[in-house]
Every structure is written in C-alpha cells, then in structure tokens.
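Question (not urgent): is this output format expected?
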Amino acid sequence: MNASVSILRPAASNPATSPELNDALRTRVAAKAAAAITLLRAAVAEFGSAGELTFANSFGAEDMVLTDLILSQALPIEIFSLDTGRLPVETYTLMGKVEQHYGTTLKVFFPDATSVETLVRSHGINAFYDSVELRKACCGVRKMEPLRRALAGKKAWITGLRAAQSVTRSGLPLREVDAANGLAKLNPLSDWSEAEVWAYIRLNEVPYNALHDQFYPSIGCAPCTRAVALGEDVRAGRWWWEDPASKECGLHVKAS
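Got this back:
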C-alpha cells in the first residue's frame, strides 16, 4: 500500500464516515479485530500477566483501537504512556477522556527533570529544529529514557504501528525482536489500513484525538507535529523538516 495516498480527513469526510463504511468494510474490520484479540490473548498466555506484558499508548488513532480492544476484553495487559512535557493540549484532553470513558487510571512516565533542564540550558528550548542530532537528543531525553524505565522488567511490549504509515515501517511484521530493549515486540495492527482503523473507531465509539479532525494523521509533541496537505504521507507532519526516509524518534527502529 502506498502511504502517500492515505491521509486523514476531518470527520465529515473521514473514511469511516464515508459511503465506504459498507458491509464489506464492517466484516473486514470485525475479522481483523478478532485476529488482533487472538494475538493479544496469545501474548498474555506466553508472556504472563500485567507487569510482564505492556502496551505503549501514545493516543494516536491506532493506539486508541488497541486501548479499546484491551480494555473491552479485560485483558491483563498493562497500558502505559509517555508524557514528554510538550504534548499538544488535545492529547492531554484525550488522556482525561480515556480515564473517564474506560474507568481506568493511566500509568504515565515523565522525563527526568534534571536531564531536560540540562538539555535546554545547553542548547535552547527549541534546539531540535537546528539539527537531526539535537532533535534526537531531545527525543532521547524526553522519550527514550522514560521508555527504558517503562519497559524495565517486561518480557514483551505492544505497539500500534502499521506497515502503511511510512517508508520507515514498510514490511512491518506482526511480531519482531526489539534487540535494543531485549524484548519481543508485537504489532497487532501491522496489516490494518487507515480506513479499517477509523471504521473500528466509529463503529465502537472509541474516543480519539481532536487533532485528527484537523488534518493531523500522526501526532507527537506539539512543536514537532503539523497538519498534512492533500497527497502528503501520513507521517509528513512529524519532524517535517527532516528526510522522510530516516525520521524516527528511536522508539521504533526497523530491523535490518
């Protein structure tokens, strides 16, 4: 699938609310949701209960699908999130909605305050615009270090990655080895299309980030995320000033 032709639209013309939401799409989504649940149940059986198997929820559309699958099925899978300190206000609003909608309390990891202070004092508040190295340094402090703490003691982690999201994620398997963290990594939505993700959200009334209705298909930190234009890649709005063939934060490195 060519990700460059798959971009989100405001709710009025979203794939899930268009005439494409027909019986065939509904059937396909139901089948893929069942397959994802089967994979998640198998992961619970293999890796143990909460505390050994965890899901990284960044509150994008895909992650909200997985959040709904896990919580609606009462699966013993821990869910955690990373608060970089620079998330959009819409993301914080969604975090509150998730807690209220599902009657749960989010497990949130924050960056080390001293490390953030050192980075900002040394390079400036928005140094990530100056070079790829400084951008990765910011991601390292605000995302990678908290992620390492979140994954400590775990046997496997779950992500909402899809193969069609960008060139850096093509060929994404349902299961892989995360060598950097020494864990199994599961991608239950790897083969889902964008239309299928949004069909699931609409059909199950899953809460989602309001920025998606403003042409933000991929949402990260506020200063590093913009809306996309017609025909742009779904992740064109992430670190838009960098080469699309290599831009990732380090949380998800494609195996060679």
